[in-house]
Amino acid sequence: MIALTPALAPVACAARTNAAQTAQTPIQIDAYGDSTTLGITCSDGHCGPQPQNAVAYLQDDLQMHHGERVHVTNFGVGGTMATQLRDGTGNRRAGPTAGLPWRERLAASPAQIVLINYGINEVMQNQTPDQFYAAETELVKTARALGKQAVLQTSNPMPDNRLNARLAAMVAMTRRVAAEQQVPLVDQFAYVSGLPDWKTLMSDGAHPKPGLYRLKAEQDYQVVEPLVRRLLDGTL
Description:
alpha/beta, Rossmann fold, five-stranded parallel sheet, 10 helices, 7 strands, 50% helix, 14% strand
């Protein structure tokens, strides 16, 4: 065994301290979005949030690999749009800061990573793709200004071909924002659309069954887990 010299001992102690601090670093991820983030599933004409949703599955996967220091909080609110998140006009029951504009709400959050998933209600409320583009751009820019890593997610597709064509235009805006702002993208629309018989995995015209939420979480994990690793390594 080689003994540490007095000059090296403090360095070794500092390295152990830094390693211990890194090991205990809590990672907070906030997931914002509509009812597909909240985890709504429909059965026999009744729709409601289910514990088997993409956000819960994502936390399970991250904790399996990194322990309980990683937490993913679900701030999904049914029926909401990106403009409402930006302006603080969504459902105020979704947490004590839900009625605040995005900048104030995010400034009060300890999250290092924020997931953003919208598009379906923009279609249902006849919002234009340009309005959606402007809102998502502002959400991402604000997150960056506050030192948060934004991750954009495209919506899962909709079984109705007419609505889905309109949703594709919103999806194009999310892809554009991700490219322009150089933030990670989870392209759920492309992934789900490529699954064989994907419409059978939907519980209604917008909401996945638990099995599809599980598959969506796997796509989220592929993008989010490297960011968590970089946070733990101190390189993000």
